[in-house]
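Chain A, query sequence.
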Amino acid sequence: MEKNILDRINDYFEYMRESFGENILLDLDDIQSSSKEQNVKNVMKIDNSKTIERNELDKISMVKDISTEKNIELTVANDWQNSNSIDELHLKINNCMECKLGKTRKNFVFGSGNPNADIMVIGEAPGADEDEQGLPFVGRAGQLLTKILESISLSREEVYIANIAKCRPPNNRRPEKEETDKCEPYLLKQIELIKPEFILSLGLTSVDTLLKKTHKMADVRGKLLDYHGTKMIVTYHPAALLRNPNWKKFVWEDVKFLRRLYDEYLEKKAN
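Chain A, predicted structure.
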């Protein structure tokens, strides 16, 4: 039997151990000594209470080629949660099809910037330009975000930029709850890996999703909020400023507030 098939079988039983406990017994020697054409019988005991017999190994769907059967998972469920770096997480989730946006996107927009950033910028969802390039905030709103960051002496390379949703909603509509529910865990893992000192939340979709509450911008902007121990500041999304230029003065106040807090943090860290 080919080695890669055995590896897949082993992955499957690792998954079963995760699901049903550590007392799963599997004799791979019987499998290895049998030819691929032969029927194979192996007995698996789960928690010493149930016995499952499986014949005809080729009929076990769990050993289908995962490169062509996307609905077959041979690895432990939610393995991406064990990622130890941003790059590893990206590799494990960039083919996500958990919601309907996976079927309409051109590119999965994971995030970009410094994986060790002190400041994480979180927006709503990719637009057309982001979907085309696979990068967050690269369209008109993104260009404005770059200028906003530069106004407080920050570059895009110093911060980390991501969105609540990783795929573009059709016609740039607001992501639906089902979509944010599927995608938010990825963002939470990004936050866990980056460990930012500050979050700059852009727009109500971002803050409402993160804090699990409906807000009015006037009630949350200009204030220091807490997000599971991380300091969070909320301001208008750059796309909103393109429609309402008068709001730029509020954003300027908010990012100056962020800069002041960040400078205080850097000074304390230096001492």
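The two ends are 62 Å apart (CA to CA). The chain has two domains: 3-63, 83-270.
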